[in-house]
Every structure is written in C-alpha cells, then in structure tokens.
Amino acid sequence: MRILVVGAGAVGGYFGGRLAQAGRDVTFLVRPARAAQLKDAGLVIRSPRGDATLRDVKTVLADTIDGPYDVVLLSCKAYHLDDAIASFAPAVGPDTAILPLLNGMRHIDVLTQKFGAQRVLGGLCVIAATLNPAREIVHLNDLHSITFGELQGGTSERVQAIAAQMQGAGFDANAVDNVPQQMWDKWVFLATLASATCLNRAAIGDILAAPDGRRVIEGLLAECRAVAAHNGHPVGEAFEGRANTVLFTQGSPMTASMLRDVENHAPIEADHILGDLIARGGDPQNGGTLSLLRIAYNHLKAYEARQARGA
C-alpha cells in the first residue's frame, strides 16, 4: 500500500515516521527546503515512546508526484488546507482514500466537494507534538493515536486494509464504525478548551482559581454540547467523564494549542474550530445577549485583525 503523508511536520512527521520505521511504503510530500533537511539530517523523532532517526526517507515535491497513491494522510493546519489540496491533488486517483486528521468538520465539506465523498474518510488523532529549532519532531507526552473510519458509518475493506498497515507501526490505531461521532466529541472538547484558555489567556487550573472560572468553562461546554446535539451528534456519558476529568481539575496546567499560537503571535484556527461551530447552530442569543462561545470567537478574531495590521 502506497501512503502519501502530506508534510513532515509534528503530526504528519510523527505518524508517517512511525509507519516508515515499521517498514511501510511511506512518501512525504514536502517543500524543497524540508526535502533537503530530511536528506541531510533524516527524520528525527524524540519521544517517550522511543526515539528514532530515519535515514533516506522517501520524499516527493508537488510537481513530481508520480501517479496516484492508495492513501493520503493529511494533517495540515486548517488555514493551509487549500494549499495542501492543490499540492496533493495529482496523487488522488479513482481508488485513493484521503484520511484527514484535522479538527472540526469544515475540512470534510471542502474535501468531499473537491474529491467526492467516496474518497474521503473521517479521522482524528490524539498527540501533543511540536518541531524544535532543529526541525526534529518532539513528542510531548505518551499519547499517540489515530482513529478513523467511513463517514457513512460501518466498516469497509479499505478501512480494514489501512488498519492492517497501521497495526504494529508504533502508535495506537483504531478503526471504528462511528467516526463522525468521535470527531464531534473531540471538537466539542477542543472548542471548549480553546475558548476557555484563549479567552482567559490562562491554563485550566488558573481559570478554575478565578471567582467565576468554573461557571465560564461549564457555560462554554454546555454551548458546544448544544451544537453537537443540534447536528445529531449529542455527546455521551463516556465523553462527559473524560471532559469533567480534564476540564475541571484544580491546578491543571493544560492549555489549548491555540493559546500557545496566540502567545507566539502565530496564525490560529479560529474560523475552523469556533466560527464553524457557531455557524452550525445551537448558538443561543438569550434576548440579544452574546453567548460565551461567540464572545470567545470575537476575542480571537480581534487577535487576528491585530496580527493582520502588524500590531
């Protein structure tokens, strides 16, 4: 099975690197500078689950893609999605499966419109990783999983074949028959975490220490849950248990990666994570009063406006 990993950043580089380390047929679609760096230093992973330096990893540039691949593993930032699509489009053939690991759901609409619903799977990943100054992939905790499946539900031969490729590749791989629900569950959690930590510019523990911190998090979580239910994907008891453990732990240092992006004056996925959630409904106006979710989104859009004018 030929697997094309779009980019060799923190997420794609980690999972693609583990697949390559396990002997799978993996090619990384990269820009010339990254291709040169990988040729010189190799693909380097620093991880509690085991370090790796992979020499002679296969790379390809957008203008030298040599025909269709069986799987395209996509893990770019949402604001790079259009550029990513343009780069890997020549790799998509009649039987190619596109497996995106982006958060939210907007990218699914974009990909299915471009390539057809039959070529797009649902997917999500759980990992905390970054690139250090040497462009090495640094895995920040011991969580590293990919969950995927057919958007229409059920199992299929292609999902089973991809699962077979991922088994034994050094990370947790889960082929499921309800991937849209799991994508919504993650979206609700991530939107709550991003809204709370970005709006307060603080970690969960710091927010909970404030006079109304718990109420703010509870309010955001309730609004995000309402959107999921409005779209036919109400979160279940298992989600509630995990969310309560993570979002309401006193002293927790947890923040959303979006807050780290804000603090680094970097681009953010405000439209993809919060704006699209609001647009899909369940945004109560309460007699004209702005919802907490919309206030958090406005906060992030103001940040983007300030970044755009170089302030």
* Total E-strand runs: 10
Low-confidence stretches: none
Q: N-to-C SSE series?
A: EHEHEEEEHEHEEHEHHHHHHH
Given helix and strand content, the structural type is alpha/beta
Please give the alpha-carbon distance between the first and last residues. 48 Å
Number of domains: 2
User: What's the alpha carbon Rg, rounded to whole Å?
Assistant: 20 Å
Tertiary shape: globular
- Which strand order do you get reading across the main beta sheet? 5-2-1-6-7
Which homologous superfamily in CATH is the superfamily of the largest domain? NAD(P)-binding Rossmann-like Domain
User: Largest sheet, described in full?
Assistant: 5 strands, parallel
Q: Average pLDDT, to the nearest integer?
A: 94
Give the gist of this structure.
The protein is α/β, with parallel strands linked by helices. Helix content is 45%, strand content 18%.
Structure description:
By secondary structure, the chain is an alpha/beta fold. The protein folds into 2 domains: 2-177, NAD(P)-binding Rossmann-like Domain (Rossmann fold, 3-Layer(aba) Sandwich), CATH 3.40.50.720; 182-308, N-(1-d-carboxylethyl)-l-norvaline Dehydrogenase, domain 2 (Orthogonal Bundle), CATH 1.10.1040. The chain has 12 helices and 10 strands. It has helices at 10-21, 32-41, 81-88, 106-115, 157-166, 179-200, 204-209, 213-230, 237-247, 257-263, 270-279, 292-308; strands at residues 2-6, 25-29, 43-46, 52-54, 58-60, 71-74, 97-100, 121-131, 137-150, 172-175. A 5-stranded parallel beta sheet has the order 5-2-1-6-7, sandwiched between helices. α1 links the parallel β1 and β2. α6 runs antiparallel to α8, α6 packs across α12 and α11 (270-279) runs antiparallel to α12. It is globular. The mean pLDDT is 94.
